[in-house]
Amino acid sequence: MPVPVSIIDAFTSEPFRGNPAAVCLLQEEREEQWMRLVAAEMNLSETAFLMQKTDGSYGLRWFTPLDEVDLCGHATLAAAHYLWEHGHREPEHKLLFLTRSGILTAERTADGITLDFPAEPVAPAVAPEELIQGLGLIPRYVGRNRMDYVVEVDSERTVRTLQPDMALLSRVETRGVIVTARADGGPGSRYDFVSRAFFPSIGINEDPVTGSAHCALAPYWQRRLRKDELVAYQASARGGELLLRPVGDRVRMSGTAVTVMNGHLRT
Predict the structure, then answer these.
(1) CB 47 within 8 A of CB 69
(2) Would the keyword Flavoprotein be found if you checked this record's keyword annotation (predicted)?
């Protein structure tokens, strides 16, 4: 039976910006190797696989072209967008996703689609030499959580102009390296902080917009800026915006999405 698949740009309201994710809705269980092959074929930073459960929730798994990951924000946002757009749930219906990071929810709000994710705060860490050499700078702060390193640098300009050595970063024992700085507050700027995210060890040199990285960045900048609502910009070539509200051990993360392709997989 053909499997429906869509490509959806997340954390943007414009096609061909934000972060593209493939979303596949399964009617029956599929082998992990098949999902890995599909993700490699899609060759996007994430491919999401959904399967409805008897209680109305959805199982949700995320795969990069190389590996399965524990948490992904943009593909979850894309999956929620898919289910509502294709009429699998009414717009007022909150979605429950069963994942490797526990139960995640998505709901429609005035801010777009709002996800409820676990906070992933970082603790101060000693930077390995490959991290320092790979970024080619002396950081203001280095922290780490169970997934990634978070590196604060001196300015928004440094974040935007950074050209990492991916071969060196791929040798760092971590999922990814998140580089961030306070936004410069220039004319017209409405952002509190900016970031970029690099994941060469799992086949993604630079991820366009990374929801899971903001599970660390939101509590970090909440403490630094003493703000309970934050507007973030991920300064990749495609770019993307997130509205963040850290609450205790959770992060409410809002954004929008747009479908750019619908089709079917031949299986």
Answers:
(1) no
(2) no
Whether 31 is a known active-site residue: answer no
14, 32, 46, 92: which is the annotated catalytic residue?
46
> Which of 141, 150, 206 has the alpha carbon at shortest distance from 174?
150
31 Cβ neighbours under 8 A, 6+ residues apart: none
Structure-token match 């060890």, residue found: 201
∠ CA 137-230-244 to the nearest 5 degrees?
105
Q: Which of 97, 41, 46 is nearest to 67 (CA)?
A: 46
Q: What is the pLDDT of residues 167-226, one digit of tens each?
A: 999 999 999 999 999 999 776 679 999 999 999 998 899 999 999 999 999 999 999 999
Nearest to 198, CA basis, from 170, 238, 158: 170
The residue behind tokens 């961030």 is 180
Structure tokens at 230: 């934050």
Residues ≥6 apart with Cβ < 8 Å to 80: 95, 106, 113, 115, 257
How far is Cα 38 from Cα 32, in angstroms, rounded to an integer?
Answer: 10
